[in-house]
């Protein structure tokens, strides 16, 4: 009979060794990538949070924090967003354009998505190509072309709000099509065919069966259109007639190059929060309406999948 | 680079448009009368020594006075002003104190509307196409030709505008670009010089033999030096530095040499271009900047942070005959339904009190009033003493003064292409 | 069950809109760029008939971009900035997308939302945030001095190329990460497992399985950010302002907002668009090829 030797006391590894082991664990998740990813996220978002923080600064400084105050939002009688006409007009103009863009681009885009997805005849390929092109056209090229077309072809339209709106809708339509079409493909024809089997006319099948199924995509695309319209700089600037047709990005651009007051941070924050709220609503609506169809993975992934235009 | 005037109580960014039009082409689309006027003109080449611009009208220069032909008779004297309805002022955004407009409207029983344009050229375009029907509009000496050739502005009857003779500098009562003031009255004026921070820049710029050389000796201030983002101003400055006073030259050798001089600045101070000096110099993010004369006044009034003394700002402009001086004007549009009232408006804006209030309480751009002289402004505390030379006087103008005038189309291309070369940067 | 004209009919408003406000404007650019200028009115006169097109301006622009021309430096500089920014975006973005797609586990949803978040934050706001941080007395300088990396504040906004490239990377990287993530996410784990089973190390499994399968994502993301980057003019203006860091977009901006030659601006726009179309076509061809190679994998 052998006696079992006392297990030798093993020295406790130092913190550094344990940390290195954690990193190098071949069976664990790749730690470096994880740290890297979280570092990226911080680098990506923290500057914006700091900018938001400074919009509540009590002094004029955008680099030295003093104390919390809402003067740049409504308090300051001259320079706050509420009282400075250039800022408040820009905010109104941005919202106006974004809302009008949604109201026009989404219906057109939904119809176009339906048409392009199902159209099999001549011209469908070309139409599809025309629809995809705005997505990859640099904005400056679009800005130039729209400015020239309004100066030389459609001369009855001047630079200003109407021209800006037309430009916004033009680049928004493609986004709506891509999102709605993605949803169409995942729905397939089954429901309409079932409805037809049950005696529904094509019109009823389209409006009472297909469109409701498309609702999450429509809502999501509305949120996306709002966001890209609110963010647009180049087209709005090129088609602006100065002064009251300036949007928030234009104001931020002009101020950032000079010596901005925290009121610029404030107006940017207002715009950002509004956009995020609307996008969140769109996202939640999408999730709500697709709750029955949830596969492994998140609905955000589906939305992310919508970004594959190929 | 585009600049969009903000509707702040004070914003100088629209000056960009002012000077852009000084070098920019007239852009009018399909205006009938304009085409007729140009029917049998000579091309806008240099034919002999008669430089012509739009409509074949001769190009005015400070030493070459031009009297524009009247395309119709001005209205009769002694008529009663029209009243009721709207009265539209066509101008850069936020360039005229709204309070003064309302007072004018109350006095004559009209509703004064303010219609903004992006710049004078696009404004004239919209006027020609009939998109707008204003009563009066702001215009510049070099776009004046287009207005006249296109019959877009009306000849004036100066009987309604006694303030012109009474209050305005003699040089501008009968200016070289509009002899006998047949079409315009002056509005504001400004000169180009150098602005800097005395607490950052140690050189005595005003005392230098050629102050413009400071830009070529600004190695110590790398990244803090800038020029105006305007093709006439930058190339013009390089010409003036070498002692060339013909700032309307169309000699490509001179312009190209000026551009290569400018390109040296990349290596010297990593030169920037913008029109933000009225903010960036007081704030301290720019230490040495080509500037317009009202900029430091505006900086002092609106943008100087607490804790920075007014003495930190300085401005230099060249003496008479070597400094570019510009002014802009007001004219009556041919679309007006209230010609008499329009004349009275022009008289109104030349009123001492009105023009002064517009300047000090709103615009920051100096009107050419006899009453305004640098000493009085310093006394009243409007202008700090060290910026006294930012205020212009009648003596700054004259046949030997410098002004950026319209160029022929070749000339404009030359200057713009030169500026494009400068803006392209160096081999990096 | 539907009428045949229904689908084209539904598509009609959209197609009409895009033709009128996208295709026609392109043609207007061509018309102006290949037109003439009225010498008296100083006004561009577009020419609509292709047979009458005047290539003078186009030649002028091409001459300026050629070596020795006044825009050669700007063109090269723009290409350099875009290529470096793209490389940095890939270097940073690929690991992030990879981690999120493959290793995020229960954090996946949260991380995904955080990565998508910048897309909804206005580009201008994100630039504003960095301009504030990069001020001489801003947090970046304070931090770097605090950690003794710098002994005195550095002027980040004084016209430096690295700041411009940094801003481009910061601005455009979210648009790269998303398609990268989407394509990485779709890769079937079983392929990787098969590679490991066959004896590949982690790194060579990545190289021979994951990387090729994510190629379409890389290409797609690269196209998605380089095309707009080539036309960018506002980013150098915001973080620099010096001609020495200007990009080709600044020249287009100049000729449309400062003078008598919109024809040059239009011609330069045409050249830029043509250059980018070539890139686009290269991308489409690579996609096509990748599609054929990948076969059933990665339902594209």
Structural summary, described in words:
The complex is a heterotrimer of chains A (310), B (428) and C (300). By secondary structure, chain A is mostly helical. Chain A is built from 13 helices and no strands. The C terminus of chain A is likely disordered. By secondary structure, chain B is of the alpha/beta class. In chain B, helix 8 crosses helix 15 and helix 10 crosses helix 11. Chain B has 2 domains: 210 residues, 3-Layer(aba) Sandwich (D-Maltodextrin-Binding Protein, domain 2); 155 residues, D-Maltodextrin-Binding Protein, domain 2. In chain B, strands 1, 2, 3, 4, 5, 6, 7, 8 and 9 form a 9-stranded mixed β-sheet that branches. In chain B, 33% of the residues lie in helices and 12% in strands. Chain C is mainly alpha-helical. Chain C folds into 2 domains: 54 residues, no CATH class; 240 residues, MetI-like fold (Orthogonal Bundle), CATH 1.10.3720.10. Chain C has 13 helices and 2 strands; from the N terminus they run αββαααααααααααα. In chain C, strands 1-2 form a two-stranded antiparallel ribbon. In chain C, strand 1 and strand 2 form a beta hairpin. Chain C is globular, with a radius of gyration of 24 Å. Chains in contact: A-B, A-C, B-C. Chains A and B meet through helix 4 and helix 11 of A and helix 4 and helix 10 of B.
Q: What amount of the residues of chain B lies in strands? A: 5-15%
Supply the CATH architecture of chain A: Orthogonal Bundle
N-to-C series of helices and strands of chain B? HHEHEHEHHHEEHHEHEHEEHHHH
The average pLDDT value of chain A, as a whole number, equals: 84
The CATH topology of the largest domain in chain B? D-Maltodextrin-Binding Protein, domain 2
State the shape of chain B: globular
The whole-number mean of residue pLDDT values of chain B reads: 81
- Provide the number of structural domains of chain B: 2
The CATH class assignment of chain A is: Mainly Alpha
Structural class of chain A: mainly alpha
Calculate Rg of chain B over CA atoms. 21 Å
Q: Provide a count of the helices of chain A.
A: 13
Q: Summed up, what is this model?
A:
The complex is a heterotrimer of chains A (310), B (428) and C (300). Chain A is 70% helix and 0% strand.
Secondary structure elements and pairings:
The complex is a heterotrimer of chains A (310), B (428) and C (300).
Chain A: H1 15-24, H2 31-54, H3 71-75, H4 85-118, H5 124-136, H6 139-152, H7 161-187, H8 190-197, H9 202-231, H10 234-238, H11 248-257, H12 262-289, H13 299-306
Chain B: H1 15-23, H2 32-37, E1 86-91, H3 98-108, E2 111-116, H4 120-129, E3 136-139, H5 144-149, H6 162-167, H7 170-173, E4 184-197, E5 225-227, H8 231-241, H9 252-269, E6 272-273, H10 277-283, E7 288-292, H11 295-303, E8 313-316, E9 325-332, H12 339-349, H13 352-363, H14 374-379, H15 409-423
Parallel strand pairs in B: 1-2, 1-3, 5-6, 5-7
Antiparallel strand pairs in B: 3-9, 4-7, 4-8, 4-9
Chain C: H1 6-33, E1 36-38, E2 43-45, H2 56-65, H3 72-103, H4 108-120, H5 123-133, H6 139-146, H7 161-185, H8 189-197, H9 202-213, H10 215-230, H11 234-239, H12 248-257, H13 262-294
Antiparallel strand pairs in C: 1-2
């Amino acid at each position: 009979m052998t006696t079992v030797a006392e297990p030798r006391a093993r020295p406790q590894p130092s913190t550094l060794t344990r940390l290195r082991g954690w990193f190098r664990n071949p069976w664990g998740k790749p730690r470096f990538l994880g740290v890297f990813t979280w570092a990226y996220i911080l680098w990506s978002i923290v500057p914006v949070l700091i900018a938001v923080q400074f919009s509540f600064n009590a002094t004029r400084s955008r680099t030295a924090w003093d104390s919390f105050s809402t003067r740049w939002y409504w308090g300051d009688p001259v320079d706050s967003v509420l009282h400075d006409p250039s800022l408040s007009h820009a905010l109104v103009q941005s919202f106006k354009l974004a809302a009008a863009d949604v109201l026009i681009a989404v219906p057109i885009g939904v119809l176009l998505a339906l048409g392009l997805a199902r159209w099999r005849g001549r011209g469908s390929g070309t139409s599809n190509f025309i629809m995809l092109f705005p997505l990859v056209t640099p904005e400056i090229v679009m800005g130039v072309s729209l400015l020239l077309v309004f100066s030389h072809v459609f001369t009855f339209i001047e630079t200003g709000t109407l021209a800006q709106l037309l430009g916004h809708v033009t680049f928004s339509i493609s986004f709506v099509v891509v999102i709605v079409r993605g949803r169409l493909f995942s729905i397939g024809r089954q429901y309409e065919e079932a409805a037809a089997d049950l005696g529904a006319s094509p019109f009823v099948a389209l409006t009472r069966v297909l469109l409701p199924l498309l609702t999450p995509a429509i809502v999501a695309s509305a949120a996306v259109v709002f966001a890209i319209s609110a963010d647009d700089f180049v087209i709005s600037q090129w088609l602006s007639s100065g002064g009251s047709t300036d949007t928030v990005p234009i104001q931020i651009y002009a101020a950032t190059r000079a010596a901005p007051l925290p009121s610029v941070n404030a107006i940017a924050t207002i715009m950002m929060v509004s956009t995020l709220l609307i996008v969140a609503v769109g996202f939640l609506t999408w999730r709500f309406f697709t709750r029955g169809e949830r596969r492994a993975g998140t609905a955000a992934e589906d939305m992310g999948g919508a970004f594959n235009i190929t | 680079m585009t600049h969009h005037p903000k509707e702040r109580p004070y914003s100088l960014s629209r000056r960009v448009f002012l000077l852009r039009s000084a070098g920019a082409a007239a852009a009018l689309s399909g205006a009938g009368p304009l085409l007729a006027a140009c029917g049998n003109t000579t091309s806008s080449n240099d034919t002999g020594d008669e430089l012509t611009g739009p409509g074949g009208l001769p190009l005015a220069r400070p030493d070459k006075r031009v009297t524009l032909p009247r395309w119709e008779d001005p209205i009769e004297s002694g008529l009663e002003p029209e009243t009721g309805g709207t009265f539209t002022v066509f101008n850069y955004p936020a360039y005229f104190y709204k309070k003064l407009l309302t007072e004018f409207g109350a006095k004559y029983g009209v509703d004064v509307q303010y219609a903004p344009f992006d710049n004078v050229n696009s404004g004239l375009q919209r006027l020609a196409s009939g998109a707008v029907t204003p009563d009066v509009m702001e215009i510049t000496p070099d776009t004046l030709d287009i207005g006249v050739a296109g019959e877009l502005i009306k000849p004036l009857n100066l009987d309604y505008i006694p303030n012109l003779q009474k209050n305005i500098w003699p040089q501008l009562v009968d200016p070289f670009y509009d002899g006998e003031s047949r079409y315009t009255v002056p509005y504001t004026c400004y000169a180009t010089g150098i602005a800097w921070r005395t607490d950052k820049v140690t050189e005595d710029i005003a005392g230098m033999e050629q102050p413009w050389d400071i830009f070529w000796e600004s190695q110590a201030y790398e990244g803090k030096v800038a020029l105006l983002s305007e093709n006439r101003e930058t190339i013009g400055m390089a010409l003036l530095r070498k002692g060339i006073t013909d700032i309307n030259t169309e000699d490509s050798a001179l312009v190209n040499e000026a551009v290569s001089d400018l390109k040296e600045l990349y290596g010297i101070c990593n030169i920037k271009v913008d029109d933000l000096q009225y903010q960036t110099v007081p704030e301290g993010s720019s230490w040495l900047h080509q500037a317009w004369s009202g900029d430091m006044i505006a900086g002092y009034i609106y943008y100087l942070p607490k804790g920075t003394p007014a003495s930190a700002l300085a401005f230099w402009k060249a003496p008479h005959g070597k400094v570019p001086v510009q002014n802009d004007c007001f004219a009556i549009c041919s679309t007006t339904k209230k010609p008499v009232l329009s004349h009275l408006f022009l008289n109104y804006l030349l009123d001492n009190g009105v023009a002064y209030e517009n300047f000090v309480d709103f615009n920051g751009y100096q009107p050419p009033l006899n009453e305004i002289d640098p000493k009085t402004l310093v006394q009243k505390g409007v202008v700090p003493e060290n910026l006294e030379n930012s205020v212009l006087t009648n003596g700054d103008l004259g046949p030997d003064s410098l002004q950026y005038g319209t160029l022929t189309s070749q000339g404009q291309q030359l200057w713009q292409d030169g500026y494009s070369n400068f803006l392209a940067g160096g081999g990096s | 069950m539907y009428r045949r004209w229904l689908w084209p009919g539904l598509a009609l408003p959209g197609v009409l809109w895009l033709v009128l406000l996208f295709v026609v404007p392109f043609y207007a650019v061509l018309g102006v760029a290949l037109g003439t200028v009225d010498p008296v009115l100083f006004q561009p006169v577009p020419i609509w008939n292709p047979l009458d097109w005047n290539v003078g301006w186009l030649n002028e622009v091409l001459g300026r971009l050629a070596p020795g021309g006044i825009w050669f430096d700007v063109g090269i500089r723009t290409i350099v900035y875009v290529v470096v920014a793209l490389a940095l975006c890939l270097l940073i973005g690929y690991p992030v997308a990879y981690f999120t797609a493959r290793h995020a586990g229960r954090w996946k949803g949260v991380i995904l939302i955080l990565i998508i978040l910048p897309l909804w934050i206005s580009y201008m706001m994100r630039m504003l945030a960095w301009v504030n941080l990069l001020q001489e007395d801003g947090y970046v300088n304070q931090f770097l001095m605090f950690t003794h990396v710098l002994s005195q504040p550095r002027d980040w906004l004084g016209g430096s190329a690295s700041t411009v490239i940094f801003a481009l990377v910061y601005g455009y990287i979210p648009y790269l990460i998303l398609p990268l993530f989407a394509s990485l996410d779709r890769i079937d784990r079983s392929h990787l497992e098969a590679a490991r089973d066959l004896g590949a190390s982690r790194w060579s499994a990545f190289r021979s399985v994951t990387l090729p399968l994510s190629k379409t994502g890389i290409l797609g993301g690269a196209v998605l950010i380089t095309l707009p980057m080539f036309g960018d003019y506002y980013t150098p203006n915001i973080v620099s302002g010096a001609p020495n860091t200007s990009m080709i977009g600044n020249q287009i901006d100049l000729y449309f907002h400062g003078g008598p030659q919109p024809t040059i601006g239009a011609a330069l726009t045409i050249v830029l668009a043509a250059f980018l179309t070539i890139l686009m076509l290269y991308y489409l061809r690579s996609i096509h090829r990748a599609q054929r190679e990948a076969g059933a994998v990665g339902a594209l």
